[in-house]
User: Fold Protein Atg16l2 from Pipistrellus kuhlii.
Amino acid sequence: MAGPGAPAARWKSHIVRQLRQRDRAQKALFLELVPAYNRLLEKAELLARFSDKLQPEPNDVTPTPHQGPGDEESPSNADQVPSPDILRVKWQEEKEGLRLVCGEMAYQVVEKTAALGALETELEERQSRLAALEARAAQLREERARQAGQVDARRARNAAQRAAYEALRRQAGRREAALRALEEEARDLLERLVQRKARAAAERNLRNERRERAKQALVSQELKKAAKRTVSISENPDTSGNGTREKAEVTLPLPAEPEFLESEAGEKRPFRSASATSLTLSRCVDVVKGLLHFKKRRGHSIGGVFEQQYQGLPVCVAARLPTWAQDVLDAHLSEVNAVCFSSNGSLLATGGADHLIHLWNVVGGRLKANQTLGGAGSSITSVDFDPSGSQLLAATYSQAAQLWKVGEAQSKETLTGHTDKVTAAKFKLTRHQAVTGSRDRTVKEWDLCRACCSRTINVLSYCNDVVCGDHVIISGHNDQKIRFWDSRGPRCTQVIPVQGRVTSLSLSHDQLHLLSCSRDNTLKVIDLRFSNIRQVFRADGFKCGSDWTKAVFSPDQSFALAGSWDGALYIWDVDTGKLESSLRGPHCAAVNAVAWCCSGDQVVSVDQARKVVLWH
Assistant:
């Protein structure tokens, strides 16, 4: 820090510097004037000496003004000085000229003095402005030094936070690995427990069967003994007086068919032989075992419960590649996230961040507004028609999925249960069933008749998209994996890793191929019969614009279509893996989603700049 005398020394030096600058400026103005004035003084002094020499003396003889015509001019007249009158006249003329020059110079001195004053005023203003700028520069240097210190501190803090983040990431990786190991161990334990319970149940059934057989054998032996026992029967009452009755011993053979025995009261009661009783018990045991076996088979069979399927969807024979934009609309108030055609291609749905879903009719190559569906309450992330085209399902950021009936403006059902944004919602091929995926790391199956969750699948990573087959649910996740779930069992049946976060999934019509789009800027075709990657699509300039960029198959499964961050559409041939074409034009922002009509003639794309484009 400077001492108290520093400001005084500063302004004194500033005054001295200004005085020196003024002296230099004024001296520069008089540098030409002073020599000229000195020359004038020298000439005046020289003329004064000439005038003194030319003064006539008293003894001078005046020459004869006239000479004779025959006289010649003497050589002495040629060397004489001009007459004083002539010199005096010349001196007066030169004096007048010098006076005029002196006047002009004095006038110039006045002008130069005025100009000098103006320049001094301007100099003072510039010096004051320079002083203000120097003070501002000093403040800026101090501010720069302070901000540089803050930048260094933030860099150090960022480095510390980066190190802490790396440590936490490693710790999370270790815990995730430990969690996977524990889950594997839990699954193994569960399998062993189920096997033990199955063995215990089998052993108990065997013991019960042995016990039942022993009981049947005991009953059979008792029936045989009872059949061979001698029975006393009174035929006539006592007529004699001794009070005795005649008895007949009858040995009853083992009957083959059920008979009726007559009681002492004259009533008939059923009697079954040992063979008939044994047959009946064994048949009952067989029937019970058959029922149990059927129940067990029914609980683990595909056909255990009758499931009503949708009718077959129309199949496209050959899709046509789009070449030009037929219609361009600013359809929403903000970016458009989702687009979907109905099963017959007559209706189109678009959903955006303005919380609205617009339904469009494709008429004559133009998009005509049909209906607007409200009530979502948050941004729309996914839309899907059911195979019949009568219902529409949308995933929203409000931790729920909304179900509409086509033709009704109000939402029919709200599927709540997720604890974070719902990123995907799709209908299953079975009627009144749907599947949703969320950022809360769960995939849920829904019974739409009761509007309740029938099953929750917990996953280790965010779910970005789901698709449904006949008996399989496929989910794409943020941890660069595609997971397969059997809708008839609780476990994950298969995991396929890919490079980059999965942004979308598209299942072919025959359910034999799966198209995935990921943040490594590639599309992959997975053969579900062999669970391997059949094709990988890349292109110069293609880049996924977001974590929800959607790619689709063409209806005939011959092409793959996706939108890029620069607004271009890229189309690849599925069989050869080559880029067929790229479409550019109306889009000036990243393309979020695309849809291909089931007829194969039209394509619709939506972007982050509110545009919906119909391609033909």
Observations:
- Residues 85-226 form one domain.
